[in-house]
Amino acid sequence: MKRIIVVDDDEEVLDTIELVLEIGGYEVEPLAEAENIHEHIQNFNPDLIILDIVLGKIDGRVICKEIKSNSKTKHIPVLMMSGLYKAEEINTLDTPPDDFMPKPFKMDVLLEKIEKLINQKAIRHNIN
User: Could you tell me how far CA 91 lies from the centroid of its own chain?
Assistant: First the structure.
């Protein structure tokens, strides 16, 4: 079973994504805050991280950069989402996520992006 960490400080969004992913056959670890995310990544060993940009105390872009700059976690695909930013703004970051999803979003589009990222990770893993 593929494992996904979802980080969003909006409880409704977090609950909805968790429910849809669990129905889709994923094991989900929902986090309402990004504190200790590196510990969660180490313990949960996710196949994908869905990360909101605006997280209250911490900026999701900072977390993404930390994940992508760490040799132990850089292989994990990161799907960022936001209702305040556009893809063009996110894709120009020094360390951009693997994909971006504007809010509000359709669940079928979210599931397509998740499948694509997890499949790409599997292909890269098999090549290396």
Answer: 15
